[in-house]
């Protein structure tokens, strides 16, 4: 059962060195909110972008 998701996008901005990481969609089913799922998803995204050496997270 899927109770939440996060969609990520990374790209190179010509005016900045390195990669830019962006969260483009983020949702947790309201029945499961308040259980740390959103925190886990956002922390996993941050770790993913750190691996890509993203300079800025939007």
Q: What does this protein structure show overall?
A:
The protein is of the alpha+beta class. It has one domain. The protein has one helix and three strands; from the N terminus they run E-E-H-E. The protein has one helix at 37-51; strands at residues 4-12, 19-28, 54-57. The chain has a three-stranded mixed sheet with strand order 1-2-3, covered by helices on one side. The N and C termini lie far apart (28 Å). The mean pLDDT is 89.
Descriptive key words:
1 helix; 3-stranded mixed beta sheet; 58 residues; elongated; 40% strand; alpha+beta
In brief:
The protein has 58 residues and is of the alpha+beta class. 26% of the residues lie in helices and 40% in strands.
Main β-sheet, in a few words? 3 strands, mixed
Instruction: Report the average pLDDT across residues.
Output: 89
What percent of the residues sit in helical stretches (DSSP H or I)? 25-40%
Poorly predicted segments: none
The SS-based structural class is: alpha+beta
Shape: elongated
Terminal Cα separation, in Å?
A: 28 Å
Number of helices: 1
Question: What integer value in Å does the Rg equal?
Answer: 13 Å
Question: In what range is the share of β-strand residues?
Answer: 35-45%
Strand order of the largest sheet: 1-2-3
Number of self-contained structural domains: 1
Q: Give the SSE order as H and E letters.
A: EEHE
Query: Number of DSSP strands?
Result: 3
